[in-house]
Amino acid sequence: MTEKWRLLDTGLHDAFYNMALDEAIAIARSSNLVPNTLRFFRWEPSAVSIGYFQGMEDEIDIAACKERGIDYVRRRTGGGAVYHDKDGELTYSLILSEDHRLISSDFQETYRMLCSGLVSGLARLGIPAEFKPINDITVQGKKISGNAQTRGMNVVHQHGTILRKVEPSLMFTVLKVPSEKIRDKLIKSVEERVTSINAFLGREVSFEELKDALINGFEESFKVKLVQRQVLKFEQQLAAKLRAQKYDTREWNFKR
Amino acid sequence: MGKAEYKVMGGKLIKVQLTTKGKLINKIKITGDFFLHPEELIEELEKRLMGKSLNENILTQVIKDMMEKSNATLLGASPEDFARCIMMAGEKDD
């Protein structure tokens, strides 16, 4: 019988709740309250997330974020700063038991394995994507997805971003640049290094079409069946608590 | 205050900010887009580096020892890269 995983589509939430819910699901998984889970989510308002080890004020132009109503949050995972555009970007999380057959003790190998589901999903849309170590997925050398992983409590949590459409100039209004003089240069370099699903295919791919392709990709690559479910009450309550006590606090977001 | 950035070839970016007392590290902050597991170890590492001498071999060994003890993993950077960046920041401290 095919192994069943839970599929959650939690829609649009603010940055703090989104990060809190990821952690709440990991805790629920750790306590065996829920099965292995694939979650899709988006960000409203648009937000920037920074990696666990990054300095908030080093990476983010706080004043520019406030002016535009863009949230900023620290992730529980390492890696770089990401701009999550409400309409441009789909985010996923995989929350799996660490003893699952797909998980290796080697982090790099686990990135490759878990990203293979995304690669297979993108292939279904006609996008010849490939995994690029350490944690990226690229199409013809341009980045289309970035991913980050953490482990704890016998659970592996990998989340990542899939660019549906991209606007580098907007990205650089919220990310710090070393000097104004090189802002244009940086925007240009991102245009050369980053692509999106819409840009690559030359057509508008809806979030629904993208999610369907990814679901099929994950099912095929991982040999699992994804079953749509709701977030547990326990997870919702824990997420609300983690939002208030951790992800929406200055203490957490500015701790580095 | 000394500051340095070091981009690891084929890896990630490390940033170090430190102050020194004589030849010893006083306060240090290591940031960047690397991956360290478990994550909370970074704060412990920064504490462990306080009072250590600015010597690349010693620093590498301190970081390696701590990682081994905690069964930690670094991705996109190595203990040697961390030590290199700390030395660079130390040289810029005034």
Characterization of this structure:
The complex is a heterodimer of chains A (256) and B (94). Chain A is 40% helix and 28% strand. Chain A has 256 residues and is of the alpha/beta class. Chain A is built from ten helices and eleven strands. In chain A, helix 1 (15-30) crosses helix 9 (233-247). Chain A has a single domain (3-253), classed as BirA Bifunctional Protein, domain 2. In chain A, the strands form two sheets. In chain A, strands 7-8-9-10-6-2-1-11 form an eight-stranded mixed beta sheet, sandwiched between helices. A three-stranded mixed beta sheet of chain A has the order 4-3-5, sandwiched between helices. By secondary structure, chain B is of the alpha+beta class. Chain B has a single domain (2-92), classed as 2-Layer Sandwich (Enolase-like, domain 1), CATH 3.30.390. Chain B is 39% helix and 32% strand. Chain B contains three helices and five strands, in the order E-E-E-E-H-H-E-H. In chain B, strands 1-2-3 form a three-stranded antiparallel beta sheet. In chain B, strands 4-5 form a two-stranded antiparallel sheet. The interface between A and B is medium-sized, with 22 and 18 residues.
- Output the structural class of chain A: alpha/beta
Through-space gap between termini of chain A: 47 Å
Largest interface: A-B, 22 and 18 residues
Q: Regions of chain B with pLDDT < 50 over 5+ consecutive residues? A: none
Low-confidence residue ranges of chain A: none
Number of individual domains of chain A: 1
Cα radius of gyration of chain B in angstroms:
12 Å
CATH class of chain B: Alpha Beta
Give the overall shape of chain A, derived from the CA principal axes. Answer: globular
Bin the helical content of chain B: 25-40%
Please render the helix and strand layout as text.
The complex is a heterodimer of chains A (256) and B (94).
Chain A (H helix, E strand, L loop, with lengths): L2 E11 L1 H16 L6 E7 L3 E4 L5 H4 L2 H7 L2 E4 L7 E3 L4 E9 L9 H18 L4 E4 L3 E4 L2 E11 L2 E9 L4 H7 L8 H11 L3 H5 L5 H16 L1 E5 L4 H15 L2 H4 L3
Parallel strand pairs in A: 1-2, 1-11, 3-4
Antiparallel strand pairs in A: 2-6, 3-5, 6-10, 7-8, 8-9, 9-10
Chain B lengths: L1 E6 L5 E9 L2 E9 L2 E3 L3 H9 L6 H14 L3 E3 L3 H14 L2
Antiparallel strand pairs in B: 1-2, 2-3, 4-5
Helix pairs in contact in B: 1-2, 2-3
